[in-house]
Amino acid sequence: MKTENNRKIVLITGVSKGIGKSLTKKMLADNYFVIGTSREGNLKEFEGENFYPVALDLTNLESIETAQKTILEKFPHMDILINNAGVGPDLGSQEPDRKSFAQTFEVNVSGTVFFTEPLIKLIPENGKIINISSRMGSMDECETADSIAYRMSKSALNMYTKILTNRLKGKIKVACVHPGWVKTTIRESNLINGTLTPEESAANIFSFITSDFESGMFWNAEKGAKILW
Q: Torsion angle of alpha carbons 169, 174, 176, 179, nearest 10°?
């Protein structure tokens, strides 16, 4: 698929709500062409010539492969891949639960990794891969015992970021980004206590993505500073 005026193409996962939705709006407003994934795949809010919806369930291998096939057939390249989709069913829990543990890792780690891998070949030199992580995945800054699966999954995503950084050195820039404490539905208390709106977080993430950042960074988009691993 060709885009008008050769505008840059960005793929964002998880665009139906929260940060992904706001980031999609921000990038569309800045003249990007957005490939947006969601479980439903049918997002009437973003209907238009600059948006292409793709159904994607990161817990389902068939869904991942179908989404990849569609993207690879329709788009000869993409400039930026943003792995935003994520879940946190055990946020706040003090003990691990087997079911939510498996779900968390399916989406935040294995689904994200195996969705990303075949698409890397679409990204040209000087392209970018951004993994939306969390400060909760920092081992250096871990001071509590809650949210075991979520914290561990984000630590694993951070490691994948470092691995991609090493593999793609000098070709594609890679980074993981903490979006801040955002008012989203990932956790009920976030809607009450979050310090950023999704729109504010998206603006901060956009500023980082469009900057000349150093590959391999773990970036706090709310504070504008590096995070210890």
A: 150
